[in-house]
Write a structure and sequence with these properties.
Layout: H1 2-18, E1 21-26, E2 33-38, E3 56-63, H2 76-87, E4 93-99, H3 101-111, E5 124-130, H4 138-146, H5 154-158, H6 161-166, E6 178-181, H7 190-193, H8 204-207, E7 222-227, E8 234-239, E9 244-246
Parallel strand pairs: 1-3, 1-4, 4-5, 5-6, 6-9
Antiparallel strand pairs: 2-3, 7-8
Length: about 270
Amino acid sequence: MRSIFTALAALLFTAGISAQTYTVFIHGKSGSNHNGVGTTDVNNYWGTSTSTVSGSKIFIGYDGTTDPRTYGTARAQTNVTTGLTNYCKGSNSCKIVCHSAGCYAIEFWLSNLGGTASSKGFNITKVTALAAASGGSELASALNGATFGFGGNAMDKSLIVGTARAAFNHNNTGGVGIYHVPGYKGMAGASLILPGEDDYAVAYHSSCGYNKAGGVDKCQASLTQSEGVWPFNSNVTYTQFTGHYRAPSLTATGLYLNHSEIKSEGYR
């Protein structure tokens, strides 16, 4: 009998030490190919920004010029599937940190799981969405318009506001909470094109997960504001998509950080 208990204790101990909790980083638009899944940040997209996050880290990389919705070699959807299958099932659990179009990639993946993440065997605790580009960017829309559809790469075209917002059901997060971290440190030129507050690459309507595009300056569950010129103005309400929230450590004003600087906020 003692040998049975000894064997059972050894089995439980082994299972305990084999369980891992990972932070999984998914990058955004880039001119480089970051293809790879593992402990290496291929071609150094994240730099030292991940130092604010403790514990075991996994990097999911792909060709940063490609459409984040696509599958194949060096494509986001294939590598997200591989990475989360390898590291976020069984006794392992994962928190995901995405940046910019990386949030587009993981939100698209979650919305197309065909069920909740947990029902599919994935143990994903949350997504921290840094400057999420899931709602597109007016900069991509402007580039497309100015070049009559001939300018930009596949990533740029995927980020056209209308394209990004129609790309998937943003209300379906696979049962995983998406916690947004928006920045409002804009830049002359870009901020003339981006409506409301922006981080020089995406506006708050995208980085806060709102259900429609527009000029907003707060990140909260719901926001109603008067728009238009009096006397033709009217109240417009913006609501965060289902399953989307502001990161609880933030106020509604967000952070005075630009699109690149916000990569260091993955600990939230």
